[in-house]
Amino acid sequence: MVEMNKRAVEEYVAEMYSLKSLYSNYFNQPLTSNDCYCKTAHTLLIAKSFSGYNKIYILSDDLDDATQNLNALKGINVVNIPSKGNIAYWEQLMHQADFKMIGVYERFYNTKIRPREKIGEIIYAKANQQEEIYNLFYDSGFFSVYTDYLPSHEELQQLIEQENVILNVTDKQIEGAFIFSIQGQKCYFQAWIDNSNSRLKLLFDAYNIMVAKNLGYAYFWVNSENKKVKSIHQLLGAKPDGLKDYTFIKQ
Fold first, then answer.
1. Do residues 121 and 181 both lie within one domain?
2. Predicted structure pTM score
3. Alpha carbon of 132 to those of 75, 104, 140, 144, 154: distances in Å?
4. What is the pLDDT averaged over residues 55-63?
5. Total domains in the fold of the chain
6. C-beta contacts of 183-190 below 8 A and 24+ residues apart
7. Which structural domain range is residue 20 located in?
8. CB neighbourhood size of 85 (10 A)
9. Considering 11, 26, 99, 213, which has the largest number of Cβ atoms within 10 A of its Cβ?
């Protein structure tokens, strides 16, 4: 891996697309000077560094060459494969490169946006609560930095300033938090945790916020194994759109 030359990598990406790569999990993710890459005649790998691991994007038209490049990686590396179809060819590559699957997430959408039961007032997070909210997510044991969306301190602070974090508070104790973002008419549910006895409050609050803002679409990801959460969303009108995200890791 060498340091990012943005123009060179963009040219490599265009070249790989023109070759109709068999393997590609790169969908125009923004490139930065902190990224690294390596290239052969058949394979381009892009590595984005996160806290304690690298996220790897692959473009390749050759199984063996891609395997060789993946085997040369050091440290903890994670590959996400979003797909609506069969990923047998990806599974073959991941197996040969000694990557293990650690999670499958399904994307859901909901267009049945209507007022929900109000369980107390909607409480927006404040700047001085950032650390407590951060710890609520990271110390819960429910989430993985490799498969789940967990904001950094800086991201969380910005989300709070944008009023994209709502809370469930009991006796001045934060028991739940819900993070979302809004793009046009769409609301993206990003992270949800609640240890209170009224665990649907924040989800209902999110839908009530959508109604107030006249938003027509909700999108979110759910762990395929979390049948309870999937059933809750489906009871509220949500449906899977067929897209799944497969996460593989090599340590």
1. yes
2. 0.90
3. 30, 29, 12, 18, 14
4. 94
5. 2
6. 185/214, 185/215, 185/216, 185/217, 186/215, 186/216, 186/217, 186/218, 186/219, 187/213, 187/215, 187/217, 187/218, 187/219, 188/218, 188/219, 188/220, 189/218, 189/219, 189/220, 190/149, 190/151, 190/220
7. 2-98
8. 8
9. 99
